[in-house]
Design a protein that fits this description.
By secondary structure, this protein is α+β, with helices and mostly antiparallel strands. The chain has a domain of 316 residues: Outer membrane efflux proteins (OEP) (Up-down Bundle), CATH 1.20.1600. The strands form 3 sheets. Strands 2-3-4-5-7-8 form a 6-stranded antiparallel beta sheet, covered by helices on one side. It has a two-stranded parallel ribbon with strand order 1-6. The protein has a two-stranded antiparallel ribbon with strand order 9-10. A hairpin with a 5-residue loop joins strand 3 and strand 4. Helix 6 runs antiparallel to helix 7. It is elongated, with a radius of gyration of 39 Å.
């Protein structure tokens, strides 16, 4: 009977510890806690990502998990397959350009504009998932520490054989001992526990003259240990306090990362748009130089131009085609990098659709912008809170210098010793108790003194880190303002430059027979440079505005990944303040 009881108990314990239900319960608890902390730390109406983690992939990579020598695939050179293409119209194109053509022409290619790219990155980016897992891990760490401060139940089953190996006459018994114990930490230090110990003895063999028989007894034990000096008070709750605050820091860090991540995706997207514009500009240049080559060839055949001018125009057309191929290759490589950034396979076809979000120009006041960053930046708030963490750790270290003064007590209630099978029928008359106070003289506090000095240094570091981050944030904001103003001024200048280059090109075309192809080529190069510079400035304006919003803490991101304009973004009044780009152009 005793052995059957032991097997049933072990089986029930194994069932309780296994199964996916427990992991699902943990995931639900973590998701609920993250949403609660996000609402508390970022506000009830904040736009934050509350979606749970997607399921993990459990597919094994490779062969046997326990194979000590995994297989390596490395065939000899003669066994390697060689692919060759015979399409004549593809021979002159680099491989990257052919891949880009496939992406554009495939019917099932994924088309993404700026909002689609942001949403896809939120759903599939590996880097984004890693950061979200960091928040998940921080939540698990908090739940682990919080669990230590709740009631904890333990059940231990021990089975053993006992006997006295005397020659010819010995006792032999099977003992089954079950201890059920519950512990609870106290809010300001110490711990109380209650345990029930049940012992079942099955006498297998009794020696002659022995009075030992089968029996079962039990006892209840109540224990308490409470520190009064060292380890008492708020110092006892330091780990729990830090775990709670650490979860808030993790929520802030994840939200800060989301904003910076969306800016990175948008920057890559706008860079691809700039590359597309560069390719279109080069196409126009190739068309114009082909026209020039045909025109000069016709004039040379009529005897109106020397043939070396034909060679010069054809050479410029060849150079332009080569530049176009190089630009297409750079775009294809950038597109593959963008796919990896989004969490897409590089072999999947992707078409980047040009799109933009019209944003009113904010009032670029350095003083107000820096003050906004001081108030809204989540990372600065965390750095400021870490100063308080350091100050609190100084107090904890000071507490460790105190002497030990602990209060302890325990009460044991055994079952009735006169009963063979007493069950849980305790006998209060047989109870025993102990109570007392332990005082530890602080003769050796060398390590604690060193820890206290270290905590003081860490506190000073925390103060310096906070001051340094404030200065760094002010630099970021002022730099973002200067970058935005410079990009807008450059955009205005390059728009003027394009007008001038187009007028010059038209004038050269009208006087081409008198001027020759050299002036046409130079005018075409100037127009190309102006158009490329204009496209770069347009990209810089878009990116600088996003970086300004992030630097000042005004960037907001929806759960789907779209960035939102701040509700109080103040547009510039043209009647009150001239455009920043216009001011710089007039000053120049």
């Amino acid at each position: 009977m005793a052995v059957r009881f032991l097997l049933l108990l072990l089986a029930s314990s194994a069932i309780g510890c296994a199964g996916p239900d427990r992991l699902s319960l943990i995931d639900q608890q973590v998701d609920s806690l993250i949403r609660d902390r996000q609402a508390q730390a970022l506000g009830q109406g904040s736009q934050n990502d509350t979606s749970p983690l997607p399921p993990d992939r459990t597919t094994a990579i490779g062969q046997d998990l326990y194979d000590p020598i995994p297989t390596t695939v490395n065939p000899a050179a003669k066994h390697l397959a060689v692919e060759n293409t015979s399409a004549p119209d593809q021979q002159h194109l680099p491989k990257a350009d052919r891949n880009q053509q496939v992406d554009a022409q495939t019917t099932d290619a994924l088309s993404l504009d700026i909002e689609g790219a942001l949403a896809y990155a939120i759903a599939h980016s590996r880097e984004y998932r890693r950061e979200k897992e960091n928040l998940f891990l921080a939540t698990l760490a908090f739940l682990r520490e919080e669990h230590l401060w709740g009631p904890r139940f333990f059940d231990t089953v021990t089975s053993q054989f006992a006997g006295t190996p005397e020659s010819g006459d010995h006792d032999q018994a099977f003992e089954l001992i079950n201890e059920l114990r519950v512990t609870q930490r106290l809010p300001y230090g110490g711990e109380v526990s209650a345990s029930a110990l049940v012992t079942l003895v099955d006498q297998l063999r009794a020696a002659s003259g022995s009075t030992a028989t089968d029996q079962q007894d039990a006892e209840l034990v109540l224990e308490a240990a409470i520190p009064l000096l060292r380890g008492a008070g708020w110092a006892a709750r330091e780990d729990l306090i830090q775990a709670k605050r650490g979860l808030v820091y993790a929520v802030r860090a994840f939200e800060r990362y989301r904003r910076e991540f969306l800016v990175d995706i948008s920057t890559s997207y706008y860079e691809l748009l700039r590359s597309q514009a560069e390719i279109e500009n080069l196409k126009h240049q190739v068309d114009n130089l082909d026209w020039l080559s045909r025109r000069i060839t016709a004039l040379a055949e009529a005897g109106r131009e020397p043939y070396f001018e034909v060679q010069r125009s054809e050479a410029q057309a060849v150079f332009a085609r080569n530049n176009l191929l190089n630009a297409r290759e750079r775009y294809a490589n950038a597109l593959d990098r963008f796919k990896i950034q989004l969490g897409m396979r590089t072999t999947d076809p992707l078409v980047v659709v040009p799109a933009d979000v019209n944003v009113a120009d904010p009032v670029l006041d350095p003083v107000r912008s820096v003050q906004s960053a001081y108030r809204l930046r989540l990372d600065l708030q965390t750095t400021g809170d870490r100063v308080n963490d350091a100050r609190r750790r100084v107090r904890v270290a000071s507490n460790q210098l105190l002497p030990d003064l602990d209060l302890f007590a325990d009460v044991t209630l055994p079952s009735d010793p006169d009963k063979k099978y007493a069950g849980l029928d305790v006998d209060a008359g047989s109870a025993a108790y102990t109570a007392g106070v332990t005082f530890g003289v602080p003769l050796d506090r060398r390590i604690e003194s060193l820890d206290h000095r270290e905590s003081l240094i860490e506190m000073e570091r925390a103060h310096r880190d906070y001051a340094q981050q404030r200065d760094a944030i002010a630099l970021q904001v002022r730099s973002a303002i200067r970058s935005l103003e410079q990009a807008k001024a450059t955009l205005g200048l390059q728009n003027r430059n394009i007008d001038l280059a187009q007028k010059r090109l038209r004038g050269v075309v009208l006087r081409l027979r008198a001027l020759g192809p050299r002036d046409f080529i130079e005018a075409q190069e100037d127009l190309l440079d102006a158009m490329n510079s204009r496209d770069e400035a347009l990209r810089d304006v878009r990116v600088s505005l996003l970086q300004y919003l992030v630097a000042t803490g005004q960037m907001r991101v929806t759960p789907q990944g779209q960035w939102q304009l701040p509700a109080k973004l103040e547009p510039i009044d043209p009647a009150a303040a001239p455009d920043n780009a216009q001011r710089m152009m007039e000053a120049s």
